[in-house]
């Protein structure tokens, strides 16, 4: 919006040849952004400059005879663009909330265009009065009533925290729903997330947190990113069952590494916290009998990142620690929890997307980390087969619930039921022998 204001207030004065050049550069930036930006990138971020600056340059070129801007298709889209923009939001929310298949995105785009056209023709083009010489004139202005009604309804919905009486949930369903969240400091765990309001960069706060049987001395360290955080309820259950405790040093995007490499945006405060966490890890590799590494392994892509990871594993191994590496859970293109909620609200069967194509990168990353673990006698990789049922769901009194919280992470409840599945597995005792508790 700021750069759009600049384009309006300070238009360029350019020769015709330069106008064409500026337009081509702008067009290249807009088209290039399609290839540069994906779901893996933080948004908004610096990559937003590509489509924004590109659009700015196309506007500043002011080429009225351009084939790009002077054609009926683009001009009509431009005319309807604000209405299209308004309509696309509810459609995006519907597709996400109900975890609809990917092809609905294209249907949503077409529907946004159609609704944008209708909205422009039958709403925007209405010539409502703009001057009101008397008070009675205001009382005849329909948009005031429309805005008032929408404002009152929106305020009531906000004050009542939604419209709860749309759906009647049982006490058990409400209890399950309440645990389909990430474990954070605010709900009793150790994941030190920069997304929480109370977060501040602190070495002591970042590392001084313990779970399990807290009466016992912790000789185990859990280290990693949010994928280590989602395993905190898992190890809390397992360690309590073994009358032991563990220390958790976990923050966003902070995979084990010796460098300043960071999967998330370095402008996020989690980056500074991660550097403190890694410093602590390197300095204390020899202080623990057991070190558990957990993370979104697909974020470790380059040779340097892989070597950094192996150096940490090797260092912990040489210090005599038992190193346990947790497999990352299955990744989903659509959010399984949203499908579960839909099944509860609409009283239909839970449908979990079993398409493995979106999980391919995570599966390959797990295998890559397992190969590293296999090089060392005291490094052990805990595979998914020991952690999750084949269906990737668990049952709670007749409710079929997914382990996944958002398509990647586990929920608190999912993590706890993963621990339950693990402790009932035939190989549980053999795997636990790798720990020195």
Structure description:
A hairpin with a 2-residue loop joins strand 7 (393-396) and strand 8. Helix 2 packs antiparallel against helix 3, helix 4 (72-97) crosses helix 5 and helix 11 (232-241) packs parallel to helix 16. The model has no long low-confidence stretch (mean pLDDT 91). With 437 residues, the chain is α/β, with parallel strands linked by helices. A six-stranded mixed beta sheet has the order 1-3-2-4-5-6. It has a two-stranded antiparallel ribbon with strand order 7-8. It has helices at residues 2-9, 16-36, 49-61, 72-97, 104-124, 135-139, 142-159, 171-178, 203-207, 226-229, 232-241, 269-283, 303-318, 336-346, 360-373, 412-423, 428-432, and strands at residues 210-212, 220-224, 245-250, 290-294, 322-326, 379-382, 393-396, 399-402.
What is the gist of this entry?
With 437 residues, the protein is of the alpha/beta class. It is built from 17 helices and eight strands.
Strands, helices and their partners?
Layout: H1 2-9, H2 16-36, H3 49-61, H4 72-97, H5 104-124, H6 135-139, H7 142-159, H8 171-178, H9 203-207, E1 210-212, E2 220-224, H10 226-229, H11 232-241, E3 245-250, H12 269-283, E4 290-294, H13 303-318, E5 322-326, H14 336-346, H15 360-373, E6 379-382, E7 393-396, E8 399-402, H16 412-423, H17 428-432
